[in-house]
Amino acid sequence: MTDSSNRTHLTEQPIAIDELLALDHYPECGGLALFAGTVRDHHQGLPVESLRYTAYAPLAEKRIAEIEQQTRERFGLSYCRVVHRLGALRIGDVAIVCVARAAHRAEAFEACRYLVDEVKHQAPIWKEEFYTDGSSAYVQGCCIRPDSQSGDQYDVHVDSHPDHHRVPHCDGDHS
Amino acid sequence: MNLSFELYGELIALAGGERITLATATAPATVAEALVLLADQCPALQPRLDQCAAVRDTDILLRSDPLPETGHLVLLPPVAGG
Question: In Å, how far are A41, A96, B36 from A119, measured between CA atoms?
Fold first, then answer.
């Protein structure tokens, strides 16, 4: 339903991790943290055969770019990068890659975790699991409605450390 | 006017399609009013709508915001990437 041209954070192709590391740049950086989320074969006790990721691309691209910018500012990074895969994925496939480069390892590690958590909580991407018995289900996620009555917030100025269970129903962690 | 709703995630399966179009005699004033009409027309979506973000292009709207002049809303259920 969306145009796939001019995308920088979403791809339907396998993610080329090496191209995201920017190793020929940023000589001031001594720390590079890399997170790759891969498809595993189980979720909440159910055997998973494959996944399908879909997205509302215009807003997903915008939000991931904003998260990258916030992360660079918050942790004083020289560079960070997030790419999320869309489409049908098999067990072991890479679904998301986050790279953070900083002068020292502590900021790089912390920033990398922050990146993946914020993307999981805010980017309009959905994960449909296909189980070995032939059934399927969407993973329950995080409400991004700003005026939700359940207390969930769409906040572009997150000022606390992200929590994997920041909202009661935000429990679809598959990475 | 015609209202149109673009659906994502589990909403597509619940509604039986990626888009719902409604013809209304009078234009809803707000996003909330448009969603009431949608719930009446498509009861399967009703339990999920409270947790959906309503979006115009790349702007997430409040329920109290005016309905876009286009009558088009994108509805985003809770997100689960990564």
Answer: 22, 10, 30
Could you tell me if B7 lies within 8 Å of chain A, comparing CB atoms?
Answer: no
Tens-place pLDDT, residues A113-172: 999 999 999 999 999 999 999 999 999 999 999 999 764 443 332 223 233 323 333 644
Whether chain B has a CB inside 8 Å of the CB on A142: the answer is yes
Q: Copy the structure tokens of residue B44.
A: 């399967």
| pLDDT tens per residue, range A17-61 | 999 999 999 999 999 999 999 999 999 999 999 999 999 999 999
Cite the beta strand spans of chain A per DSSP E: 10-11, 31-38, 42-43, 46-55, 79-85, 87-90, 94-102, 125-131, 136-138
Strand partners, A63: none
Cα separation of A144 and A164, whole Å? 15
Q: Would an 8 Å CB–CB cutoff place A174 in contact with chain B? A: yes
Interface of B with A in 16-75 (CB under 8 A): 18, 50-55, 57-58, 60, 62-64, 74
Q: What is the pLDDT of residues A80-125, one digit of tens each?
A: 999 999 999 999 999 999 999 999 999 999 999 999 999 999 999 9
> What tens digit of pLDDT does each residue of B34-58 get?
999 999 999 999 999 999 999 999 9
Among A171, A58, A68, smallest CA distance to B76 is for: A58
The type of residue at A100 is A
Contacts for A136 with CB less than 8 Å, ≥ 6 apart: A128, A129, A130
